[in-house]
Design goal:
Length: 172
């Protein structure tokens, strides 16, 4: 399984800037078997868990998250970049290499007793994932765990996510 998915992920050197090796999942998404295998691999670890919602982080978490949610018979929640949601939203800021960014989730999306799996394509430095955890927990819900297609292990993204179950399909 992992070999199939690795073969469908394209390496793009020096994107978005010099020295970065970008892992492009676009070829994987257009391949029926690759996409099916990806969704299975992301959903399977959570099949026995109590999951009410899958929260997908913008943008590629939006592509993967709804299919994972359907597999788990759960709802889907979009975790958006700041300013993109139409109703009152909870907001979490996180650090970037040069500055800060923020993500948001509708305030009425979650509450106590809700169980959430957070989904995204890549776990790199972990800033966005930590912000998503704070959003979910700040609304009173429980983070069951986090699921990633790719984990860039050398960047230490798991740091600061202690106590949360993390499932990654492919590690680089």
């Amino acid at each position: 399984m992992t070999d199939l998915l690795r073969a469908l992920i394209r390496d793009v050197p020096d994107y978005p800037k010099a020295g970065i090796l970008f892992r492009d999942i676009t070829p994987l998404l257009r391949d029926t078997e690759g996409l099916q295998t990806t969704i299975d691999a992301l959903a399977t670890p959570w099949a026995a868990a109590e999951v009410d919602y899958v929260a997908g982080i913008e943008a590629r978490g939006f592509v993967l998250g709804p299919s994972v949610a359907l597999r788990l018979e759960a709802g889907f929640l979009p975790v958006r970049k700041a300013g993109k949601l139409p109703c009152p939203a909870a907001r979490e800021e996180y650090d970037l290499e040069y500055g800060t960014a923020a993500i948001e989730l509708h305030r009425d999306a979650l509450g106590p007793g809700d169980h959430v799996v957070i989904v995204d394509d890549v776990l790199a430095t972990g800033g966005t994932a930590r912000a998503a955890v704070r959003l979910v927990e700040g609304l009173g819900a429980t983070v069951v765990g986090l699921a990633f297609l790719i984990e860039l292990t050398a960047l230490g993204g798991r740091d600061g996510l202690d106590g949360h179950r993390i499932e990654s399909v492919i590690n680089y």
